[in-house]
Design the sequence.
């Protein structure tokens, strides 16, 4: 019997240039194993360059809990980390697990994963020539930017509570009979959640007793923007206001001109609780239009209604 040989791939897991990832997508694989042996020396050099540049910025600007997380995870400075090594330190602390993915995940599935203490993690890394900017997440953003905060139980519980709001949105919208209205309501709630995530988990600052500190992963993985967010007179820093956040669009192509500041992780948790209350009260039914957009077919599948 003739068998089809397994496909082979050239070494390298560079973002947008990795045949392994393209093949996984073609096969419909969302969660994937990390094929560690495919990382090239160039991939490891990119990690080293990113880590070496960011470490002094973390020491200067990062929230202390982030720095504690970096140390407790034993994140390597000289090579791309193995997810199983990271999870060996992470899971016992907060039950979170970094799970490799092949790329884009619909926003509501991403949020739902957080509610289950799964963190969808990109396994590719940006090219050596593009350390300053990448328009999509990579493993440095996800592991060095996000995951150290996941070691803190208070922050992790806030992230879980936020993720559970995706299920609340589905619960609120699932029984709306008019399919157009159902999709519009759910899409509005997802925009609100995505904006909240962007302005807190990705680009949030916290006011400590002495100074502003960074806890947002988008800032913690960006050499230039972390300092800009804290010190630049061009950045507008305001206390976190839920009604403003959920109606405020964002643009990924430049430094963020608007930064929201929280007082504590407990206050951030309270804002997530309020977000869910607003869902149930209908206050997120018609937030401002704009990004992110959601696919109607994906919405129907998530809500278990099928295409109508």
Sequence:
């Amino acid at each position: 019997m003739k068998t089809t040989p397994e496909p082979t791939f050239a070494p390298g897991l560079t973002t947008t240039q990795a045949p392994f990832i393209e093949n996984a997508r073609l096969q419909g694989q969302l969660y994937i194993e990390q094929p560690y042996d495919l990382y090239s020396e160039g991939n490891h050099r990119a990690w080293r360059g990113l880590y070496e540049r960011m470490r002094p910025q973390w020491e200067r600007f990062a929230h202390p809990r982030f720095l504690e997380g970096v140390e407790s995870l034993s994140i390597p400075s000289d090579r791309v980390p193995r997810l199983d090594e990271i999870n060996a330190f992470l899971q016992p602390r907060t039950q979170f697990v970094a799970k490799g993915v092949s790329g884009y995940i619909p926003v509501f599935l991403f949020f739902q994963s957080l509610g289950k203490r799964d963190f969808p993690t990109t396994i590719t890394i940006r090219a050596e020539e593009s350390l300053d900017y990448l328009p999509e997440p990579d493993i440095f953003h996800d592991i060095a930017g996000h995951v150290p905060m996941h070691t803190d139980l208070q922050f992790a519980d806030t992230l879980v509570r936020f993720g559970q709001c995706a299920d609340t949105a589905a619960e609120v919208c699932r029984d709306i009979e008019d399919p157009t209205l159902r999709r519009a309501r759910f899409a509005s709630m997802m925009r609100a959640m995505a904006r909240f995530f962007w302005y807190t988990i990705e680009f949030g600052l916290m006011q400590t007793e002495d100074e502003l500190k960074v806890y947002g992963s988008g800032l913690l993985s960006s050499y230039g923007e972390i300092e800009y967010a804290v010190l630049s007179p061009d950045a507008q820093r305001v206390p976190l206001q839920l009604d403003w956040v959920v109606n405020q669009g964002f643009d990924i192509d430049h430094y963020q001109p608007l930064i929201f500041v929280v007082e504590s992780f407990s206050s951030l948790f309270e804002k997530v609780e309020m977000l869910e209350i607003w869902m149930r009260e209908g206050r997120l039914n018609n937030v401002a239009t704009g990004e992110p957009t959601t696919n109607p077919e994906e919405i129907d599948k998530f809500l278990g209604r099928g295409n109508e």
